[in-house]
Amino acid sequence: MKPRQMIIALLVGTLSGLLVNALAADAAWVTWVVNNVSTVIGQLFIRLLFVLVVPLLFSALVMGIAELDLKDLGKLGGRTLAYTVVVSIIAVSVGLVLVNVLQPGAGADPNIRTMAGASGIKAAPQPMDTSAAGVILSMVPENAVKAAANGDMIGIIVVAFIFGIALTRTRTAAARQLQGVMEGIYDVTMTCINGVMRLAPIGVGALLFSMTARVGGGPLKQVVAYVGVVMLGLAFHCFVVYSILLRTVGRTNPITFFRGARLAMITAFSTASSTATLPTALLVAEHQLKIPRGVSRFVLTVGATMNQNGTALFEGVTVLFLAQLYGVQLAFGQQALVMFICVLAGIGTAGVPAASLPVIAMILGMFKIPPEGLGFILGFDRLLDMSRTTLNVTGDLVAAVCVARGAQEEPSAPAPRDD
What pLDDT was estimated at residue 97? Predict the structure, then answer.
């Protein structure tokens, strides 16, 4: 999928839908085309994303845990994992606060809600017992296959974590072969996602035509506000949160850090891939930021797949924005659950363009938010993907600085005495 193709699809779908809405909104042929052509094409694209959710999420989480053996890696791995979890929570919290305060999805045309549910995708089952104990019990499924079939993604995530931890502790040849199978599933799933994204311009154009032909250009104002909120959240996390971490934990001047990291940041913005930026990030870490080679190679390699702060923030903002757009009220506990899933997804999501879209589709299905809204998001996703990848790579470098500082400040063992 080329950015030019997506921009053309965005313009063609939106402008043609607006033209039809202005000239022949109530015509019978318009209703037939929307119901039987454009909506069908758009829903096929959405369903293809949903099909890939379970194998992508399960294999990515299992591989991420299996490749991070904290027992062997010691304190370096523990610090990296702790940093990843804490800073990802901060990133998602920043996004959720901005969405709740600025309300980019509020004030949308009520007619847009009549389009909800056209995909026919069932929402994940919600726990009958809403108490703390009931929610905890509902996180562990009675049957993993049934959980996957019902769209119980929290259960799948828990099973993946248990499976990944067990895989790291099983030292047999068969277990190593199974790990290779998991890696193969992950690779094949990513190939499928790349194939689906080649169809994205057609699917996005069809979704936008259906939306604007029915309700006009009203939702576009909310989408522009959403893009602004995402960019504001990414900028705040990059230049405020990271600066505080660099000053307090990394004991480094933020201005000096950003000056040294600018080559990696530019590469990340242009490629929209943490994995493709990894060689440049390693070069910057060792030669510009003067991070010890052992620390930089480990932290940046792990961070390219596990430390996705920008992705986690983007996913949280997107879910809450679409909930506001379609009038779906999410309580505080549900928003906390969204944050939890986004943090885990940020750890398991691949560092390649558009890898977070199936995860967003999964979260939308969990909370009965119409996945058709992804058509709006995909039209602007290239710019947002480039921006959040820049934050991801910058976060990896910040993590390397902080982890290296912690390793340097460890008290050394006393020298033996010759008494």
Answer: 93
